[in-house]
Amino acid sequence: MHLMNSSDIPKKLNPDIIRSVIQKNLLLDPRRLYSFFNWSSTQIEMGNPQNYLECSAILVVKLCNFNFFGTANDLLFQMIRTNLSPSEIFHYIQCSYNEFDGSNSVVFELLIDMYKKMGRLKDAVKVIDDSKGYFVPSLLCYNSLMNDLIKANMLEGFWKVYERMMQEGICFDVYTYANVIRVFCREGNVEEAKKVLFKMEERGCKPNLVTYNVLIDGLCRVGALDEAFEMKKSMAVKCLVPDGYTYTTLIKAFCKERRTRDVKSIWLERAHELLDEMKKKRLTPTMEIYDVIIIGLCRCGDLSRANEFLEEVVAKGLKPSSKTYTALITGHSREGRVEDLKLVLEGMRKQGIELDRFLYNSIISDLCKAGKMIEARTFLVEMNEHRSAHLKPTAFTYGAFVHGHSKAGEIQDANGYLREMLDHGVVPDVYIYTALMSGFCKRAEIDKAFELYDEMCRKGVNPTIVTFNIFIDRLSKLGDVKRAREMFDSIPGKGLVPNIVTYTTMIDGYCKSGNVTEALNLFTEMSSRGIQVDKFVYNALLDGHCKEGDMEKALVLFQEMVQKGFATTLSFNTLIDGYCKFQKRDEVKCLLEEMENKGILPNHVTFTTVIDYFCKAGFMEEAKMIFLNMQEKTLMPNIVTYTSLIQGYNTKGNTSEALALFAEMKMKGIRPDEVTFGAIFDAHCKEGNLTEALKLRDELVATGTPLSNDMYATLIGALCEREEYSEALRLLEEMGKQGLKPTLDACKTIIGSCHGAGSVEEARQVFGRMVELGFIPNTTTLNDLVEGKQNDANIEDSNNLLKQLA
User: Fold this and answer.
1) Longest dimension (CA), the chain
2) Residue 794's pLDDT is what?
3) Residue 480 pLDDT more than 80?
4) Mean pLDDT score of the chain
5) Phi (first) and psi of residue 427, to 5 degrees
6) At which residues are the PPR repeats (predicted)?
7) In this model, does residue 642 exceed pLDDT 90?
8) Helix (H, G, I), strand (E, B), or coil: what is residue 413?
9) CA separation for the pair 632, 629 (Å, rounded)
10) Residue 481 CB coordination number (10 Å)
11) Phi-psi region for residue 792, left (φ > 0), alpha (ψ -120 to 50) or beta?
């Protein structure tokens, strides 16, 4: 080449001469021609790229014919860099290929391979497409290209190549089938993938370990874990032994499967079995396997076993990943297992993994949610002691303490953390302020909540609609509907729009305060603004109409609710309660039937409301039927239910039934309340069974349950009727010591009992002691005390008693 450079040959060169030299010397070593071509290309411009490609195509075909594939690859690389299309390059090579007898078709495969190496897979597919009718690539070429297309996730190109193979009638080998199965699995079409496996076996191509691993992985990806597990078991029939990849795929799938905790526990057990099987076959589990098992156990709440696996990992000299430690830390902190948490942190630090801000915040947040505020505090102190600004507490960190203390009702502590974060220069966000305001509102400290609201606004922190909803809700519940409305009207001024919760809360507030008219105005406004009305709004309005006693409007609204599918158990309960108050027995019964027909289940409130109404109205048979029906529906009566029935039977004079119910409720472990005991005292006294009444009184005293005024009055009255005045006086003394004072009606009953027995002296003693104990204010009430006896037949005796008492 040096001699040629020094001669006048370069001056005589042109594209035609270069092409002519190559064509006339084809019998020479093609490498010498290639060197000449390269040299010539540096001496002159080839002009039209077609001249360059024509010469290159001749040379690349000759190089392949002589098996100089390395040099051919270099030339193909240069040809592709001309930026001509794959079709043009293929055309020139194909023309040269046809020109020479016995040309080696490997040149086309080298072109496909070069496009692959250059990352131009689409162009490689294009060459496959253009080659139809000219040459058929080898199975190795097809498999290699398909494999690269899968790796690049170019599935459209994959199926083009697959179609070409089918058209050419190429006989697939195990690698081709594995690739097709892999793509079907990647597309989530495991049914087709299974058909391919069946087809390959049918055609005498035995699946290998890779084929099974690909299909098992595909089944795991779509959650068909049982099928994947069975596929693994079927490998033994084919004399195939699962490898580490098989076990890893299955174990990861079983551990990562997101199901309910109970089902997840079953999957984790299977993963554990696979791990044991793996160890028996002397396959070494990787850290990846231990990671997923530990993380799965943590998510399932089985922290003890997760700890055991961690110990096993460390003992084997493996290093758990930060994900593993994060899962363990999160699990222990959520459960409030502080000692276990400390051990995990210690082990983590020994492995050279330090806590970052995310983990600190996660630990603090979880401990606060678990109510471990003191333990969470130690991590906050640790964060503040760090020199790195990246580990300093943020608003999220302090927010966890504010939310935790607020939830526990420790509002002063929550407020303390707000002040602490301000002292550290951390700006609270709206969620922290809102949590605190909510805490103060729940404690009815509304003024303090407003002070915080003002502070928040001064600091430039804008409220959210949730902030307003909290204030409106609390003000409404406190009966300050006027102030709640002021808050409601101020919402647009903050650039916010009332939502369904805002409207519902305000409407409910108006209804509970008896202003249904204003509630209906808001209801109309809500609809006009396009806010979808829900069952909660309707229930609030229904309650308002019932409280006003407007049952006609309540019924119209209720029917509208039924039509729209908004009627719930609460809706029925509200209307039933309204009808009960107006003693509409037929309407109550109709509503109970309607609930049954519509499949809306009555609850304790439904049955107890109806039972209470029937008992007060004296419909004891119907009350008993409802009581039995309630239990048939597996709803156990509570203290209110039993007390209503006991009072009802007692009022009707059926004291034996009342006492039987009292015994039944005690047997069921339902503790009577003051009202129940009062009714039972009355029942015993009506039966004249003072022994049982006094026994019940002693039982109450022994358990530290105080007797009420009514209980004492009932007992004392009964004792006076039985002329047991010393015991009556003793109970009067006891009342005085307890700080109790009988009502004037009770005093009348007691004095009247003495009068009825004609026991003037005893009546004087009882009356005198009543005056001394301050039960009777002055003598002007004496007429009141005996006036109930003035209608007795012996009026003269009554007047005499009055004079004597005076």
Assistant:
1) 164
2) 41
3) yes
4) 84
5) -85, 120
6) 138-172, 173-207, 208-242, 286-320, 321-355, 356-386, 394-428, 429-463, 464-498, 499-533, 534-568, 569-602, 603-637, 638-672, 673-707, 708-742, 743-777
7) yes
8) helix
9) 5
10) 23
11) beta
| Least confident piece of the model among 158-162, 290-294, 521-525 | 290-294
pLDDT digits (tens, 9 = 90+) for 681-690: 888 888 888 8
Query: Rounded to whole angstroms, how far apart are CA atoms 756 and 774?
Result: 24
- The terminus-to-terminus CA distance of the chain in angstroms comes to 151
Predicted confidence at residue 504, as pLDDT, reads 94
Rounded to whole angstroms, how far apart are CA atoms 79 and 41?
Answer: 13
Nearby residues of 269 by Cβ (< 8 Å), 6 or more positions away: none
Coil vs helix vs strand at 329? helix
Does residue 404 contact residue 369 with C-beta atoms inside 8 Å? yes
- Helices and strands in the chain: count of H runs, count of E runs: 47, 0
Q: Are 190 and 218 in contact (CB under 8 A)?
A: yes
CB neighbours (10 Å) of residue 205? 16
Side chain identity at residue 672, one-letter code: P
* Contacts (Cβ under 8 Å, ≥6 apart) of 324: 290, 291, 294, 295, 310
Which of 330, 340, 389 is CA-nearest to residue 364?
330
Compute the Cα dihedral for 68, 70, 71, 76 and give only its sign: positive
pLDDT, tens digit, 9 for 90 and up, residues 372-424: 899 989 999 988 888 777 888 999 999 999 999 998 889 999 999 999 999 99
Residue 152 φ/ψ region, left for φ over 0, alpha for ψ in the -120 to 50 degree band, beta for the rest: alpha
Instruction: Tell me the two tokens of residue 29.
Output: 């070593």
Can you tell me the distance from the alpha carbon of 701 to that of 250, in angstroms, rounded to the nearest whole number?
A: 67
Separation of alpha carbons 740 and 782, rounded Å: 21
Judged on CB neighbours under 10 Å (0-12, 13-18, 19+), 210 is: middle
Q: What local confidence, expressed as pLDDT, does residue 799 receive?
A: 47
Alpha helix locations (H) across 136-208?
Answer: 139-151, 155-168, 174-186, 190-202
How many alpha carbons lie under 13 Å from residue 502 in its C-beta half-sphere?
A: 23
Alpha helices in 257-321 (DSSP H): 261-280, 287-300, 303-315
The span from the CA of 47 to the CA of 49, in Å, is 6
515, 483 in Cβ contact below 8 A?
Answer: no
pTM of the full predicted structure? 0.63
- Tell me the CATH class for 1-170: mainly alpha
- Per-residue pLDDT averaged across 504-509, rounded? 94
Query: Which residue matches tokens 């897979």?
Result: 121
Element (H, E) at 642: helix 639-651
Helix ranges, 652-794 (H): 655-667, 674-686, 690-702, 709-721, 725-737, 744-757, 760-772, 782-786
Per-residue confidence band for 264, with pLDDT thresholds at 50, 70 and 90: low
* Positive or negative: CA dihedral 764, 769, 772, 776: negative
- Residue 284's pLDDT is 86
| Selection from 342-356, 559-573, 720-734 with the highest mean pLDDT | 559-573
250's CB contacts (< 8 A; 6+ apart) are 216, 220, 225, 228, 229, 232, 271, 274
Q: Which of 801, 701, 707 is nearest to 759 (CA)?
A: 801
Cα torsion at 320, 321, 325, 328 (round to 10°)?
A: -80
CA distance 99 to 463: 82
Query: CA 644 to CA 609: how far, in whole Å?
Result: 9
| DSSP per-residue letters across 755-805 | HHHT-HHHHHHHHHHHHHTTSS--GGGHHHHHGGGTTSS-HHHHHHHHHHH
Torsion of CA 230, 233, 237, 243, to 10 degrees: 130
pLDDT in tens, 267-296: 788 888 888 888 888 888 888 888 888 888
CA–CA separation, 516 and 506 (whole Å):
11
Phi first, then psi: what are they for 716, rounded to 5°? -65, -40
Q: Is 285 within 8 Å of 321 (Cβ atoms)?
A: no
Contact 139, 170 (CB under 8 A): yes
